[in-house]
Recover the amino acids of this structure.
């Protein structure tokens, strides 16, 4: 089962090149985490109800795709950096460290109005064997 949700209007900046005051950066990070948390809980609750933690444990390992939507593309390392706070919030909600081998993170970009699309899908058994071989 794949779970997908969209956070409309969330503007992910390339954090590596952003020249901003530390307080502005902290405020932006908090907003990104808070919005991700809210939309994650709504999406996972719609699919699994109150037992979503059991659902997550049953579907590990998992591939998590984060797609940054915006009018212009970022280079690859800035795209990954821009998605950092979204990644941190998802890992926290899953109750798993974001560096865990149980999670594989995929970053993509799309053109359009600002927003973020997140996809959570369990790795297929065939893919698990290839990765662990």
């Amino acid at each position: 089962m794949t779970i997908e949700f969209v956070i409309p209007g969330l503007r992910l900046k390339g954090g590596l090149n952003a020249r901003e005051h530390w307080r502005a950066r902290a405020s932006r990070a908090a907003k990104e985490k808070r919005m991700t948390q809210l939309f994650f809980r709504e999406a996972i609750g719609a699919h699994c109800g109150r037992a979503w933690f059991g659902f997550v444990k049953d579907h590990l390992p998992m591939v998590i795709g984060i797609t940054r939507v915006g009018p212009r593309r970022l280079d690859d390392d800035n795209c990954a950096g821009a998605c950092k706070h979204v990644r941190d919030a998802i890992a926290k909600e899953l109750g798993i460290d974001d560096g865990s081998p149980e999670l594989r993170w995929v970053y993509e970009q799309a053109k359009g109005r600002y927003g973020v699309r997140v996809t959570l899908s369990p790795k297929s058994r065939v893919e698990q064997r290839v990765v662990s071989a």
